[in-house]
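Go through this fold for my students:
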Amino acid sequence: MGLDSEGRLGAYEPKGVIQDSIHGFIPINDAEYWLLQTPFLRRLHGVKQLGMAFLVFPSARHSRLEHSLGVMHLASMMATKVASVAKRDQRVCDALASDCDRLAESLIQVARLAGLLHDIGHLAYSHMTEEAVKYLALFAEGGESRALFEELTTLSGSNLKVHEAYSQVFIDRLLRLASEDPRAEKLKGLEGYLMAAKLSLTGSSTRSELQVLEDLGLSEGSVKVIHDIISNEVADADRLDYLQRDAQATGIVYGNIDIARLIHGITLTIDPEGRPLLGLDIKSLQTLEDIFDARYKMYRSVYFHHKVLAFSKAITMFMKALSQEWEPGLFPLYSNDSLPSLLLPSRLAEAIANDSYYFDDSELDYMVKVYAARGQLARRWALSLLDRRDLVHVSIFKRSEELILIAEDVLRSKGLPDTPQRVADLMEYVVVNFKGLIDDVKKAFSDRLELDLFKSSIVDAAKLQASGLRVFNWNDSIYLRGLAEEAKIPVVLLYAYSNDEKFHANSLRPKADELRKYVKDKVRDLMKEAAR
């Protein structure tokens, strides 16, 4: 169970175990048991890990809570390895702790809490509602929208990292619960551990926050190491859990990763400025290749599946329409609040703490069902999320490889090498000229037809290079070198839709093949133009 010599799990007595489908028995201690009884953690039972992906992969109904427990478990094992390395190397211990005798206890406990709480801020259907919340903050009318924008930017900066912003506020409210709940009084030091976990997730470090770390016997360097344990772009506890969990839940055969071998290969080095750096040894190469293989295939097969993304876009469209057609008082749960108002991070944190409302999947499902029988545009998009699959976005390109093949063909016809960078340049040209493509399609078909674009990447080489994780020379792996080269090519998918329900179902759908051919020809023309 990972108990120390005094029988403790982290900083507290073990409370019990949770049977998990991926990791088997996950032990929890008294503090974690208390946290799991709070509304903030209970709420995660009702937030699906993969949003509406279950409409494509029916068994993918696992929750954010399952994932959070898995990340806690893996983070605990990784922190235990770090503590054992520090125990053998005084220089490493000094870089991690202000009190080496307390390092293992505090480091492991903070890592466990950071893992448990890292996704606490996810709203209904996880990432699928984040674009809609950004829209409400940026474009919806009224003072509540401005207030939402101000809160989100204050918490997460101009990038509007939605679930990270909510996580900060929710953890702050958990800190208040810990100070108010008599059941938490026996959990000595819990507020300090929670604060340190928050620091490891947010990266901030004011003077008072640094004092919290010192009180736990930790240094500022330990917070960075815990952050890298949870999220490092290469092989972190978050990624290691969701790749395996999502593969199992969707029935995909990828994601078999030798976790024990990876943890065994964890190293710690000290940079010239005395900061501790998490790393992996060369013997971890095979496992790291397995991780990137699973990552590549899961993104291709699940996360970037064209239908999964179509449902994500439908949720965004529904919430945009909902904000315009919102009827105050229609849902007694929310009193007379507007949609942006009830989603204010500070407001939602209080609502959750008081069990007033959660804005989890079940609440959004109820909104969808109510507006499917009323309203106008909200009705159209609500129906697409229920039983009207003919109203979901039409995929023009179902796989990014279709665009890649066009780009390669264009390059070869011009006598140019079809290198990943050249292919990426042609695809980027299509993205840059997307507005002109929309205009052409409208002229050829109808003004009521709209195009939408999805662009992302599976592996961001720049983020990998900037990662705090120090690994062996990437050139030691032919596979990883090749993957990094292929990663230069973005994932680009195109969709067509109409806000007019009848036009979408009766005109757009029947002409889908004709539209696909037209758009593909236009994309080819754009790429030829770029390849001159």
